From TrEMBL:
The chain crosses the membrane at residues 12-37, 248-269, 281-300, 320-348, 376-396, 462-483, 539-561. Residues 414-524 form the CAAX prenyl protease 2/Lysostaphin resistance protein A-like domain. Pfam families: Rce1-like. This is CAAX prenyl protease 2/Lysostaphin resistance protein A-like domain-containing protein. It comes from Cohnella kolymensis. The keyword Transmembrane helix applies. It comes from the Bacteria. Keywords: Membrane, Transmembrane, Transmembrane helix.
Length: 573
């Protein structure tokens, strides 16, 4: 087995891999230790089914015919603050039992853009059943209904609760809070027990002419039945502060340094060009760009969730602008990745190391196949290490995860292509942060030591300097991930600096291709698990395929090389 996987001399790698896989399964997959990874395997409606359900509800409950609907947008929205609060205080299971059916924190919001000047009807659907849990009609102007007098407030609130009951709300679950806002919205509090300090509220905007005894269909234009969760203000302020700090770190700790690294990559591609070829990296950078553009187009509903959360409407004009900006950014990232490939190869070869074989070299196909096998072994070690790191940070820092609908499979047109993102991350991040980043800082550190000592540093000193060279690019890489929905924001910095050093060590030990495969496999496994448990029909098979996809790619490259090169496929003896 060790020879088959490319570890012919040391079985300890296989033992470490097995232990890493076991740790990953027990900490992040199996509900044993309560790790940061959580999953919900309830069947969820596909986006198309949610759209059809919304059109049925519009016809049955709002008397809106299909030909009155101009456009339909389906978006997964999530109350990230509520999910974060429940996650931090271990209340998610209680929430699932008590609230998720009638007032879920995650919904499909289906926006029906009505023809003419009829506005937008926003329907919030329970994601598993398609039941209507909330709605709002945006007519472009607030309703002009007069507010009730003080002595009529109780009767007004009673009519509002009756109005909500018409739309499927269980009136017995709610009591009037005594609050009527300036727009006539009547606020109710849930009679169910609070979860920690989290309380659910219902707000109803009721037409002035509505009567519970009338047999006529109630007026709905310009009105709404919505709900939300009130969580402690201190926790809301905490999350906002965390997000602000993460945003500043992303700009000044990642984006600005990345621009500097881009310039340095161009410079070193020129100065170290004699040690390499300017054809290096063209194929990988092109694969990155093509795949990421396809993935970005696939995630347009995710962009929509972000713009809707900011208060914009669900139209695609703003989302198309985001898409164009993102494609331009991806083109720049692909060019950066290319120069990192050239500069990194030149740097390492100028330092006497060849970490990346070329296609034209004998045995390239066998090297890819071996790297793929090693990649699985290393990926399982990394998954185990990541799981332990996150568990320790959860226990020591109180780390917790929230939700991010922009990355949700429910906001993807074709969820099953999610694992392709693993190839984009593995290619770009390993070429940028490890291959070029470590090579750049190692050349600086060793060069500085050479000047100070007046000679070549000793092997032991070189090892220390190489290890030190892993830290700056690992920190930059980590700062590029602080925007993820894990709190406190420095949780990911600690985790990814450690992971970055491990990736760097593996690259120096097994070569660039092995660590690219390891990164791809790690992400493909995590994304496969996400697909397995997202509840969408067909995604479980896509999740299983995600696990073997890197192996199939490695085998395909090996086979293609043998077909093209024939007898030259084997390395010279």
């Amino acid at each position: 087995m060790s020879r088959l996987l490319g570890f012919t001399k040391d079985r300890r790698w296989l033992w470490a891999s097995g232990i890493g896989l076991a740790l990953f399964l027990f900490i992040q997959v199996f509900p044993v230790t309560g790790g940061l990874f959580s999953s919900n395997n309830h069947p969820v409606l596909p986006r198309a089914a949610a759209e059809n359900k919304a059109l049925e509800l519009a016809a049955d409950k709002f008397l809106i015919k299909p030909n009155q609907v101009q456009e339909v947008y389906v978006t997964h929205l999530s109350d990230s603050e509520t999910i974060g609060y429940l996650s931090k205080y271990d209340l998610l299971q209680d929430y699932d039992k008590q609230w998720s059916g009638e007032v879920p924190a995650d919904v499909y919001r289906v926006d029906l853009h009505l023809r003419g000047d009829a506005g937008i009807l926003e329907l919030s659907l329970q994601m598993e059943t398609g039941d209507l849990v909330a709605w709002r009609h945006d007519s472009g102007s607030a309703p002009a209904d007069a507010l009730p007098e003080q002595d009529q407030a109780d009767e007004y609130a009673s009519r509002a609760l009756s109005y909500a009951a018409f739309w499927g709300i269980d009136a017995a679950d709610w009591e009037w809070s005594g609050d009527i806002d300036d727009n006539g919205g009547v606020k109710f509090n849930s009679r169910k027990a609070a979860l920690g300090e989290a309380h659910v509220w219902l707000k109803v905007s009721v037409p002035a002419e509505y009567s519970s005894t009338s047999s006529t269909f109630p007026h709905w234009a310009g009105h709404s039945v919505t709900y939300g969760t009130e969580i402690p203000q201190a926790f809301t302020a905490y999350m906002e502060k965390q997000q602000q700090r993460a945003g500043w770190l992303s700009i000044f700790g990642f984006i600005v340094p990345q621009v500097i690294m881009f310039i340095l990559a161009i410079v070193y591609a020129g100065t170290r060009g004699k040690h390499t070829s300017f054809l290096r990296g063209i194929f990988l950078a092109s694969v990155f760009f093509v795949l990421y553009v396809a993935i970005t187009i696939n995630m347009i509903p995710g962009f929509r969730s972000q713009t809707m959360d900011a208060g914009a409407d669900s139209g695609d004009r703003l989302n198309m602008a985001f898409l164009i900006i993102q494609i331009v950014f991806l083109a720049g990232t692909a060019i950066f990745t290319y120069f990192c490939a050239v500069a990194g190869d030149g740097l390492w070869k100028s330092m006497g190391r060849s970490l990346w074989p070329r296609w034209k070299e004998p045995g390239y196909g066998e090297a890819v196949l071996k790297s793929m096998k090693q990649g699985y072994v290393l990926a399982f070690i990394l998954l185990g290490a990541q799981s332990v790191i996150l568990l320790v940070l959860q226990q020591t820092l109180g780390a917790f995860a929230s939700s991010d609908p922009t990355q949700s499979t429910y906001n993807m047109t074709l969820p099953w292509i999610l694992p392709l993102l693993a190839f984009c991350a593995g290619i770009s991040e390993e070429l940028q942060s490890r291959f070029f980043g470590i090579g750049l800082f190692r050349s600086w550190f060793v060069g500085l030591a050479r000047r100070i000592l007046g000679r070549e540093p000793s092997p032991r000193t070189a090892i220390v300097l190489t290890t030190a060279a892993m830290l700056p690019p690992s920190i930059l890489w980590a700062l590029g991930h602080v925007g993820y929905a894990i709190y406190p924001f420095y949780t990911r910095i600690i985790e990814l600096v450690i992971m970055g050093v491990l990736f760097g060590w593996f690259m120096l030990r097994f070569g660039l291709m092995a660590v690219i495969f390891a990164h791809i496999i790690l992400d493909a496994v995590l994304m496969g698990i996400q697909l397995l448990f997202d509840g969408l029909p067909g995604d479980a098979w896509a999740g299983l395929f995600s696990f073997v996809m890197p192996a199939l790619v490695g085998i395909a490259i090996w086979w293609l090389y043998r077909v093209i090169h024939g007898r030259q496929a084997q390395p010279a003896q």
